[in-house]
Amino acid sequence: MKLMAAAFIVRILGFVNRIYMSNILGAEGMGLFQLSSPVYSLIILTLTSGVSISVSGITAREKARGHTENALRAAKTAFGILLAAGTFCGILLSVYAKKISIELLGDVRAYYSLIMLAPCIPIVASASAIKGYFYGSSNVTPTAFSQIAEQIVRISVIFFVANKIAGSNLAYACAIATTSAAFGEMANLVVVGIAFCREKTKEKPTLTIKSAARGIVKNALPISINRLVISLMGMIETVLLPMRIVAGGFDYKEGIETLGRISGMAMPLIAFPTLITSSVATTLVPAVSEAVSIKNYKLANHRIEKCLNIGFLLGFVFFGIYYTLGSAAGELLYPGQGVGVILKELSFCCIFMYVEQIMAGIINGLGKQGVSLLTSAAGYVIIIAFIWFGVPIYGIDAYVWGSIISMAVTAVLNLCVIIKYTGLAVHVRNWLLKPAVIALACIPASEFAEYFPINDKFLHFLTSGAFVCLTVLILIVKMFKNLKWGDIIWKKMQIKKS
Predict the structure, then answer these.
(1) Do 299 and 213 share a structural domain?
(2) Which of 15, 94, 456, 472 has the most CB atoms lying inside 10 A of its own CB?
(3) Is 201 helix (H, G, I), strand (E, B) or coil?
(4) pLDDT band at residue 167, thresholds of 50, 70 and 90?
(5) C-alpha angle 235/239/240, rounded to 5°?
């Protein structure tokens, strides 16, 4: 629960930061900001995802044996590896930033953002090794505080610096907004670094640096390759969208603005509830892994069933909320940017996005990361095909429906994988029918608010939102009486007793 509480605070701060940044940079500025982000994500996720998980696993194993000194040695070794690799990648990005911005991203203005992102790489990379240690120690407090500190610093930099020059030079303003990430990551590293320095032991490690490095690289390599492939496909999606909009007869400015509205404004709202599903997915990895390792498939399926129930319920509920309130919410948060219509259309993604994230956690718990890569890649192939062939003809609608179909296909494929390896039974009534009824009930609930003579847009939105949320809560209580959060909390003793 600490992890979810911390994620909620961080997500709220990041959400506020994103809204404020969107309003000072506008759609074009957010598009430019989003254009450089995939390059950064590609490098960071490839470097850190596998190593962080590897350190977490080694830490958990060594601490269970009472060898804290070996866990510390593994974390310090990973820190050194990532610091060196991150520095090398940061230098490469600095050297080739202009070439990447012109030839790959197609916009020389992204050069300044890439230059500002380069110093972040060794900082973020090395910090992930320490975070892996704390995750393996089941101590989420340092990482929670570090993420909160990071968001506060980011908001401060944007508020005091980027806001001052947004109107004069958009490229510089985006670069300053990107710089906020560098300062935020520094704050992140300082907080986790201080906490890590307090982790001391008088025992000498029996794990050599060479053995630790070999184990970390061996475990991290398959995961990092997975993240590299997925990140590459995500970058292709981002870069192609404005290019194919231009191919449809629009100018480049409109293409980059569309990218900003979708990726920088609408999608963060759609993805906001993933703070719940990501926590569920994180909990599921050890829970499913442990249950399967002792061949207790009944317990594994019980937990999987409850978690998928939560995923489908969240998906349908937020689909109903965004479909009915999305237009008004988009106009209130991003006035004059035309985000409301896009948000309403993207609301269908909610049905599949949240449950797909939970399914990914289940598949990782089953040890089938390679299969997860294939299903994710299939989804990306679909959305890229829609962008390439559909966007020039049908415009942004092709991208929206491509996103929905892509997520739906990935979710169905993942469900088939789970059924194959666990024998899980499909519960149509609890997973689909009941949540769908709740989603549909949002429509008359929002329309009921139209009968109230309220002229103020904000008050009207609050009234509609209150009716919709009240309807949702009543139906959830009535239709899901036995659904409890405790059903998905992993406790090792419970698994062993079952």
Answers:
(1) no
(2) 472
(3) coil
(4) low
(5) 115
Handedness of CA 70, 75, 78, 83 (dihedral sign): negative
Rounded CA gap, 41 and 33, in Å?
13
- The pLDDT tens digits of the residues spanning 359-391 come to 887 887 777 878 888 998 999 999 999 999 999
Contact 431, 311 (CB under 8 A): no
**CA 423 to mean position of chain CA atoms:** 29
- The residue count of the chain comes to 498
- Is residue 240 domain-resident? no
- Where does the pLDDT of residue 165 fall: very low under 50, low under 70, confident under 90, or very high at 90 and above? low
In a domain, 242, yes or no: no
Rounded to whole angstroms, the Cα distance separating 314 from 205 reads: 46
pTM of the model: 0.82
Q: Look up residue 191 and give its amino acid.
A: V
Number of domains in the chain: 2
pLDDT digits (tens, 9 = 90+) for 224-264: 888 888 889 989 998 899 999 999 888 888 888 888 899 88
- In the chain, % helix, strand, coil (3-state, to 5) comes to 85, 0, 15
Handedness of CA 178, 182, 187, 192 (dihedral sign): positive
Q: What is the CA radius of gyration of the chain?
A: 23
Please check whether residue 160 lies inside any domain of the structure: yes
Q: Which structural domain range is residue 329 located in?
A: 273-498
Residues 6+ apart with CB under 8 A from 327: 340, 341, 343, 344
List of residues 6+ apart from 405 with CB closer than 8 A: 382, 386
Q: Give the least confident one: 63-67, 127-131, 363-367.
A: 363-367
51 pLDDT higher than 80: yes
Does residue 243 belong to any structural domain of this protein? Answer: no
